[in-house]
Design brief:
mainly beta; Porin; twelve-stranded antiparallel β-barrel; 12 strands
């Protein structure tokens, strides 16, 4: 399958992070013939919780496909944690790692959210992921457009979100980083950007080699709210197991 055909397929299958999901995508996160099992989670001081379990694999050397289950607890006291959505996700690498000035990829998600009779709209996200190595540091930037499908005008609309990480590759097992996740609000109506949120903070990352079993990647950090609309603090952690096939 050609890359243009894969991009078309990705747009048809396409996948999206909900507006409150903390998602950082590297354009080079495609491990051909490896099974990836990933859990990505966050807990905010306002009571909001997000948990996910993802299963994916590199279909080719430049195309990754995955499926994900999501659980959410809305902010506020007494709210239950519920299965919130099922996602299909796709990542297509557009450049060969390190061959150009900048590595780039195309990421998409489609979330089926109307579970257990909950009136939650489906969601589509598409965007670009960029990566740049400078010396012993790696810098990643994601830019996304997020569209919710709902007859309710307050819920529907197009939103812009972004994620950024700068990592110092100190050791394979431990590499400190700074991360930021932002939601700029709706771009299709006046005043939408006033709803924007931004959280920033330090994160520890690393990879542990497990011999023939594969390798374990981890991320863990605490992010501080940088705007009035943001939660005061958010704990974020991620575990990813990569198993050769």
């Amino acid at each position: 399958m050609t890359r243009s055909a894969a991009i078309a397929a990705a747009l048809l299958l396409a996948c999206s992070a909900r507006a409150d999901e903390l998602r950082l995508v590297s354009p080079n996160e495609i491990d051909y013939r490896e099974l990836e099992i990933e859990s990505e989670n966050s807990a905010a001081t306002d009571g909001g919780r997000d948990y996910s379990l993802d299963l994916g694999a590199g279909v080719t050397r430049w195309w990754h496909l995955g499926a994900e289950l999501e659980w959410e607890r809305e902010a506020g006291p007494g709210n239950p944690t519920q299965l919130d959505g099922v996602q299909l996700e796709s990542l297509i690498r557009l450049t060969e790692p390190g061959e150009g000035w900048l590595d780039a990829g195309f990421y998409s998600e489609y979330t089926r959210s109307d579970l257990h009779s909950r009136e939650t709209p489906d969601d589509l996200l598409v965007g670009a992921a960029f990566l740049k190595d400078i010396g012993r540091t790696t810098h990643t930037l994601d830019l996304f457009l997020d569209r919710s499908f709902s007859p309710d005008e307050d819920v529907a609309g197009i939103r812009f979100s972004y994620a950024w990480q700068s990592r110092w590759n100190l050791w394979r097992q431990f590499a400190p980083a700074i991360e930021a996740f932002g939601q700029a609000g709706r771009i299709d109506r006046p005043g939408g950007f006033e709803e924007g949120q931004l959280i920033v903070g330090p994160v520890a990352t690393g990879t542990v080699l497990l011999g023939p079993i594969g390798k374990l990647r981890y991320e863990a950090g605490y992010l501080f709210g940088a705007t009035e609309a943001s939660p005061a603090g958010t704990v974020r952690w991620k575990l990813e197991m990569e198993i050769p096939l």
